[in-house]
Amino acid sequence: MPSLKDLKIRINSVKSTQKITKAMKMVAASKLKRAQEAAEAARPYAERMEKVLTGLGASVAGQPGASPLLIGTGKDDVELVIVASSERGLCGGFNTNIVKAARIHLRELIAAGKTVKILCIGKKGFNVLRREFGDKIIDVKDMSGIKKLGFADAQTIAQEVLAMYERGEYDVATLFYAKFQSALVQLTTKQQLIPTPLPEAANENEAADELGGAAYDYEPDETAILDDLLPRNVAVQIYRGLLENAASEQGARMTAMDNATRNAGDMIDSLSITYNRTRQANITKELIEIISGAEAL
């Protein structure tokens, strides 16, 4: 049985940890509101961009001269998997869930005989994936120095992704991130970035449905608009994924630190009971020894 001194040290140590977890919970809660507002503000634009591109793409997919970002390279032998995670831990299963989904997808691609390339955004995902797929990771984006995420940060990553596609280094690009739903729930999301996903039966009727059933005349023509919007859409979707990740990370951290704080409180209560019982037992033992000694005299 541990001594009273050991128990006292343990209790003080847990109390110190509890103060840290409580402070981290409060910091995460303060950051969560801003991150959530940014993620929710980006959703309508990103979703509408997808709908517009789906509608336009469905009408020009079969035409000659369509953008490779829309129709693809004609094959899917090489896939670029972009895994967005956090730079810091202590956020529950946030990083684990993203990496788990990416790992399953990567194993399926490799089992199908395809070549995979991995681009990691955030070191936590990289630290896990490199154990199994270290030779397939082509780059790691360090986001630790970015205090406030901006569109320019996502655009820099998108430009590199697009440049690789233009050089023919891959055929399909897929992004993994966590979509924020609440502080308790973050949904792991897999989104194909390149080529832009189109309905299975792309036709003009479906294109009209995606645009609200209205007929539109475009100036310039659809092809010229797509040439401008398709690269922009890659940056927009990456930016959206990073914002969703930022909100999900703070939500997961706040929940994890709240659980840790409550668990520390339970441990302190348990250790305090053990300490008091041990102390009482020692006092009783000393009294018995004193009484026994007195009677012996």
Task: Report on the architecture of this protein.
The chain has seven helices and five strands; from the N terminus they run ααβαβαβαββαα. The model has no long low-confidence stretch (mean pLDDT 84). It is α/β, with parallel strands linked by helices and 297 residues long. Strands 3-2-1-4-5 form a five-stranded mixed beta sheet, with helices on both faces. Helix 1 packs antiparallel against helix 7 and helix 3 packs parallel to helix 4. The protein has two domains: 55 residues, ATP synthase, gamma subunit, helix hairpin domain (Helix Hairpins, Orthogonal Bundle), CATH 1.10.287.80; 214 residues, Pyruvate Kinase, Chain: A, domain 1, CATH 3.40.1380. Belongs to the ATPase gamma chain family. Keywords: ATP synthesis, Cell membrane, CF(1), Hydrogen ion transport, Ion transport, Membrane, Transport.
